[in-house]
Amino acid sequence: MILVTGGAGFIGANFVLDWLATSDEPVINLDALTYAGNRETLAPLEGDARHLFVHGDICDRALVERLFAEHKPRAVVHFAAESHVDRSIDGPGAFVRTNVDGTFTLLEAARAHWSALPAGERELFRFLHVSTDEVYGSLGPNDPAFTETKTYEPNSPYSASKAASDHLVRAWHHTYGLPVLTTNCSNNYGHYQFPEKLIPLMIVNALAGKPLPIYGDGQNVRDWLYVGDHCSAIREVLARGRLGETYNVGGWNEMANLEIVHTLCALLDELRPSAAGSYARLVTYVKDRPGHDRRYAIDARKIERELGWRPAETFQSGIRKTVQWYLDNPGWIANVQSGAYRDWVARNYAGREVQP
């Protein structure tokens, strides 16, 4: 049995669904069901005895310890995190609480559990911490991509909180011997992603005939990773990764935000044409967000060299699958767009003067 934290969120839920589609090993799924956690994503697992969902907070030490005591998981896969940069600027306290305090709570509970295991089980136990490339800071246009030895230079409350959690995980390995693994991934996209992130926000807004807000000049570059590929990478690291090591996981797809949005518009023009004309007419430039990193790029050669992993999807194949999924699942989109979500979107983009 494995314990997955944040397994009702975007990447965590995709991982749980993928895990149980390829394995009979049960999953304890611990999620606080904040705005981005969605039980509806896990609907295919209703009635599946291999999936135990627990509504709870990773900062709740008593609950976490009880789950370890009752279920004795042989591994933890730690996704649970506040993860949106804009929200971290608006309210950084929640990011410190979940990403730093929550990771500390998990590490301490895992250490106590692991320390009490018989020798053979202790050797098999793993704590896999899922992190982000944003901890490395921003790259210039000609800088080499992030490797696992790149100096940490976080620039937002979100990335700073994730950097802190990475350091805690490293320290618990080097100080206490806890058998940890860390993955730092690039920007994920795919089905079940909450529509505050770039790709689903653009799809949802375009279908509603709303503006497609582009920060600054739209030339901020990200490396895009299909969520199914990310899940397969985590499985490989969990199974065969070297203890104490970090593995960068990327899609080898560096693209500027504006190019992403125009790609989405072209796909929607093909798959769901609008009587009003191309969706590109909705592109709107807005004031940039504070501290907006210019470029991220992942060097994923280590995970390929050591574990034989490479992404299966190209950006062209993955983004087409993603757009089609959102077109096919309007009910899921409507259900996650609660009043609280709409209020946040309105607040985040209000007052950002349109750029020429």
From TrEMBL:
Q: Which reaction does it catalyse?
A: dTDP-alpha-D-glucose = dTDP-4-dehydro-6-deoxy-alpha-D-glucose + H2O
Name the UniProt record assigns to this protein: dTDP-glucose 4,6-dehydratase
Domain NAD(P)-binding, first and last residues per copy: 3-322
Q: Which domain of life does the UniProt lineage start with? A: Bacteria
What family does the entry list?
Belongs to the NAD(P)-dependent epimerase/dehydratase family. dTDP-glucose dehydratase subfamily.
GO terms assigned for molecular function: dTDP-glucose 4,6-dehydratase activity
Sorted UniProt keywords: Lyase, NAD
Coiled-coil segments on the chain, per record? none
Keyword presence, Calcium: no
Return the Pfam families for the record.
GDP_Man_Dehyd (PF16363)
Class in the EC hierarchy, top level:
lyase
Cofactor(s) the protein requires to work? NAD(+)
Q: Does the keyword Cell membrane apply?
A: no
Q: What EC number is given for this enzyme?
A: 4.2.1.46
Which biological processes are named by the entry's GO terms? Answer: nucleotide-sugar metabolic process
This protein's species is Thauera phenylacetica B4P
**PANTHER family per the record?**
DTDP-D-GLUCOSE 4,6-DEHYDRATASE-RELATED
Query: Entry's NCBIfam families?
Result: dTDP_gluc_dehyt
Q: Which SUPFAM superfamilies match?
A: NAD(P)-binding Rossmann-fold domains
